[in-house]
Design a protein that fits this description.
Distance between the termini: 50 Å
Oligomer: single chain
Strand content: 5-15%
Order of helices and strands: HEHHEHHEHEHEHHHHHHHH
CATH architecture of the largest domain: 3-Layer(aba) Sandwich
Number of strands: 5
Number of helices: 15
Strand order of the largest sheet: 2-3-4-1-5
CATH superfamily of the largest domain: P-loop containing nucleotide triphosphate hydrolases
């Protein structure tokens, strides 16, 4: 089944307008930086843009779903030799390592991509490398990429996708054409969930937890973790939640991050529009944000979850103000 076209990406008209302009003028920068929150369509847009560059039947910004051109058909199947989607699975296969251990983009991966892009397409087409989580480039890999961005081969484009653009080398950012992506409105997230076959009651429960991210809403539904309302009154809940985490850090971290989002939403939901008028609520939200940063800096997922749950219980026990 053909993948979505650019026009099917929800809630990102400003970004899509920039990409359509590039496709129309064919003034393609050697590097693009797709940045914005997680789960708002950046990686999908990058792959669709790469596909559109070589589309033989392009109408507006998409190929006909019925009878797509050979180029788009190959891209939809993931077998287009001129598009490289660089993620954990790609690097693990390339380096013959375990996918779960791919926490950064390594120099050997970037060197392989550079050699690949330097070889002209056999069909004279554009060659594209899409780097997901580009902020995980190790310094040596970023410096290797920098050299090729300074003197890019013709008809090649690098698309760096990230929700943490500040962690990229400044010299890399300065050589990329920025394409900002915005958080999604709640109604857009609802639409995206319903289009994916999610029942309306489940979609209505997940959308408020998403914080502008369709991807996060889908993860919330997939992980099916308990709502704080279900465990706040249980004294041992912080430790029971921690005990239930998987032993693998790469599995535990996303579950804890999801719970932190649920706790933040609980605080906001309990006070409604008066959340930021409460000094105690603001303090709790700051502490939860600090714990999320610690989690991303390799703090123990178990310890982060225990501290967060204990702090939320303390907030609740102290008598959080009730909405009118």
């Amino acid at each position: 089944m053909p993948s979505v076209s650019l026009s099917s990406i929800l809630g990102q008209e400003r970004a899509l307008q920039r990409l359509r302009s590039i496709l129309t003028t064919r003034a393609v920068p050697p590097a693009l930086l797709f940045h914005g929150p997680q789960g708002v369509g950046k990686a999908t847009a990058a792959l669709e843009f790469a596909k559109a560059l070589n589309c033989e039947k392009r109408q507006d910004d998409s190929c006909p779903r019925e009878g797509p051109c050979p180029s788009c058909a190959g891209a939809d199947k993931g077998i287009d030799p001129d598009i490289r989607k660089v993620d954990a699975a790609y690097q693990a296969s390339l380096l013959e390592q375990e996918e779960a251990k791919q926490r950064s983009i390594k120099i050997d991966t970037v060197r392989h991509l550079i050699r690949d892009l330097e070889m002209r397409s056999m069909l004279g087409r554009w060659k594209t490398a899409v780097l997901e989580d580009a902020h995980t480039l190790v310094p040596a890999a970023a410096n290797a990429m920098l050299k090729t961005l300074e003197e890019p081969p013709s008809r090649t484009v690098w698309i760096l996708v990230t929700h943490r653009p500040g962690e990229l080398l400044a010299t890399i950012r300065s050589r990329c054409h920025p394409v900002p992506f915005a958080p999604l409105a709640a109604d857009v997230i609802m639409q995206g969930l319903l289009e994916r076959g999610i029942a309306r009651p489940e979609a209505e429960a997940a959308a408020p937890l998403a914080e502008g991210s369709l991807g996060r809403a889908l993860q919330t539904l997939e992980r099916a973790q308990p709502d704080p309302e279900e465990w706040l009154a249980a004294p041992l809940a912080p430790f029971e939640l921690a005990d239930a985490l998987p032993t693998g850090l790469h599995l535990a971290r996303p579950l804890v991050e999801d719970q932190l989002h649920r706790m933040e939403w609980h605080v906001r939901r309990s006070l409604g529009p008066r959340t930021y008028a409460s000094a105690e609520a603001r303090a709790v939200l700051r502490e939860l944000s600090d714990l999320r940063r610690a989690l991303r800096s390799n703090a123990s997922p178990r310890l982060v979850l225990e501290l967060a749950a204990l702090r939320l219980q303390e907030f609740q026990t102290a008598g959080s103000p009730k909405p009118p």
